[in-house]
Each structure stands twice: as structure tokens, then as C-alpha cells.
Fold this protein.
Amino acid sequence: MLNQMEKASRFADSVQVEWMPIKLGMEKRDADMRRALSSIPLFENLSRRDWRDLTSLFHFRTFLNDEVIFKYGTPGLGMYIIIDGNVAILAREMDVDVEIARLGRGDFFGEMCLIEEIDRSASAVAKGTTRLIGIFRPQLKDLMHRRPRLGLVIIERLARILTHRLREANQKLVEWREKQMLGAKR
């Protein structure tokens, strides 16, 4: 049986994913990226040294309209931050893709894969030309070995984000159940 990294490597080879490592310099593109990154709770209020060490995590790629970023059931390699453009998140329902979310500039997705090696529970597709920054699990693990305190800060913030999103999902489920119960009583 293939382990998660072998599956990820085979998947990446099969789709020829081309992510470019980036260093955040002073160019306009880099300023846009730094602005988008610093607006995300994961990266807000970090020191210059932290930013310098974090740049090893960041990879950049442009996707064209309707280009698949990742597919349901494939190995989760990392999370993605939208610099420009839109991304549709699609769930599989009875062999049909159903859009469950539309994300835009400054939104991020796929963050659970930074914590645990799991397969994707949905697909992500670019809607229009979309520029993304990818952060991949192996680079995050490397950062945690090099700068444990910074790694801990990132993981704690990630845990808070995941907890917040879980609470929101639970609230939506409660509201849906209440709505269903009211409809059943009529």
C-alpha cells in the first residue's frame, strides 16, 4: 500500500504541478502578496525576522479559468491563499459536483492538510484567472524544526482558525436541523 507522500508524489507528477518558490521582495507583485498574507489571521502581526523565515513556505502559481487546483479524493498537500481571482469549492453528491462555496481575494482553503495528511474532501477549481500562494506540509514541518517557536505560533493560529470554522459549520447544521423540524411539523 502506498504511503501518503508516495501517493502525493505520483499525483503531483501526473498533473505536472508547477509551483514557483517565492521570496517576498519589494516588487509590486510581492507587495500584493505580502498584503494578502498579512491580512490572514495566520500571518498577521509577525516580525520582520518571522517574515524572512516564512518566505521559504510560500509558493506561487497562476491558474486559468476552470483549471483544477485539486480534486476530491486526492492527497492533500497543503493550503492555498487567493491573491487575485476566485475559486469554486465543489463537493461530490451522487457523482455530481455541487458548488458549496465561492472564495475570493484574501480567502484561503485546504488548511486541514497542514495539520493532517488526509485526502481532499472537495475539489477546488479556478474561476477566471486566479493567482494563488501555496503552503505545503513538508516546508511547514521543516520550519517547525528550524524555528520551533514560530512553528508553534503558526500551528496555534491554524488551530484557532479550524476551531472557528468548525463552530460555524456546527451552527449551520443546528439551524438546518431546526428548519427541517419546523417543516416536518407543518
